[in-house]
């Protein structure tokens, strides 16, 4: 069986705009896979990434591909970041998501009273009562002792 050549124009791809694919950079293509300790090569590659019109898409693609990978399975410079920088970014984002998922403490304690206060939120009756009771305890303790 034979197939006709695909002559349809393909959809635009961010890789078409990749600065690192510019033929002028062919002699230094390995710089995007340089060891992190090779500061000169890493700096050259990341500087070129810094001017790349596809940088955001490149970084997004790297994040998607590397989502389930460990640090040892992340290679090269992508989106202007080294594998180590992407790994650190991934850990930071995961910690941020975990913090966002954390259930807030139930109202009615002095801790939640101060959490509302720090966040500039209105103080509900239960938290206000807990705070008042705590203040009362402190006042009683200072009178007695
Ligand atoms: S951001 Fe860097 S690695 Fe990504 S496409 Fe652009 S030049 Fe290449």
Low-confidence stretches: none
Distance between the termini: 96 Å
The quaternary state of the protein chains shown equals single chain
- Bound heterogens, unique: iron/sulfur cluster
Order of helices and strands: HHHHH
Report on this structure.
With 145 residues, the chain is mainly alpha-helical. The protein has two domains: 14-89, no CATH class; 110-144, no CATH class. It is 50% helix and 0% strand. The protein has helices at residues 39-50, 55-65, 83-101, 110-119, 125-144. Helix 4 packs across helix 5 (125-144). The longest helix has 20 residues, at 125-144. The mean pLDDT is 91. Bound molecules: iron/sulfur cluster (SF4). Iron/sulfur cluster binds at residues 18-20, 32, 48-49, 52, 54-55, 58, 77-80.
Topology, please?
Blueprint lengths: L38 H12 L4 H11 L17 H19 L8 H10 L5 H20 L1
Helix pairs in contact: 4-5
This protein binds iron/sulfur cluster.
Iron/sulfur cluster (SF4) binds next to helix 1 and helix 2.
The gist of it:
With 145 residues, the protein is mainly α. It folds into two domains: 14-89, no CATH class; 110-144, no CATH class. 50% of the residues lie in helices and 0% in strands.
Name a few traits of the molecule.
145 residues, mainly alpha, 2 domains, binds iron/sulfur cluster
């Amino acid at each position: 069986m034979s197939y006709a050549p695909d002559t349809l124009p393909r959809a635009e791809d961010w890789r078409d705009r990749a600065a690192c694919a510019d033929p002028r950079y062919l002699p230094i293509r390995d710089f995007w896979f340089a060891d992190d300790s090779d500061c000169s090569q890493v700096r050259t590659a990341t500087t070129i990434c810094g001017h790349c019109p596809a940088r955001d898409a490149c970084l997004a693609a790297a994040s998607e591909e590397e989502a389930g990978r460990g640090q040892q399975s992340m290679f090269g410079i992508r989106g202007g970041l080294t594998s180590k920088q992407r790994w650190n970014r991934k850990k930071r984002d995961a910690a941020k998501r975990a913090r966002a998922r954390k259930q807030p403490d139930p109202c009615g304690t002095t801790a939640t009273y101060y959490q509302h206060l720090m966040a500039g939120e209105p103080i509900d009756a239960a938290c206000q009562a807990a705070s008042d009771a705590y203040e009362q305890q402190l006042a009683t303790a200072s009178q007695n002792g």
